[in-house]
Write a structure and sequence with these properties.
59% helix; mainly alpha; single chain; 98 residues
């Protein structure tokens, strides 16, 4: 059986995460604009502006600020991230009756 290597949580596919952040931003911008203004003649322009603003705030917080604060805390506090103990191969302990 092949050994499965665990990756660090920050070593992920960023395209997928950005797509999820974009979808959340679009839904939030659409809900906010429809609730506030309804369907107006400049809805698309307002939607684009709201989407960009919310996306920049969300992505900046999730992908830049939170990892930076986490890194700074780990760096200056002297704490090391917990590492799993290396797996030792178990020997087959079968008793042979002779």
């Amino acid at each position: 059986m092949a050994k499965v290597v665990k990756r660090h949580p920050f070593q992920r596919d960023w395209r997928r995460d950005l797509l999820i952040a974009a979808l959340i931003s679009m839904l939030l911008a659409m809900a906010l604009l429809l609730y506030t203004f309804g369907l107006t003649s400049d809805f698309i322009f307002r939607l684009f502006n709201a989407f960009v603003g919310i996306f920049i705030l969300l992505a900046g917080t999730v992908f830049v600020i939170v990892p930076s604060v986490n890194w700074l805390f780990m760096r200056f506090s002297g704490k090391k991230p917990k590492k799993a103990a290396p797996a030792t191969p178990r020997k087959n302990a079968q008793k042979h009756s002779e």
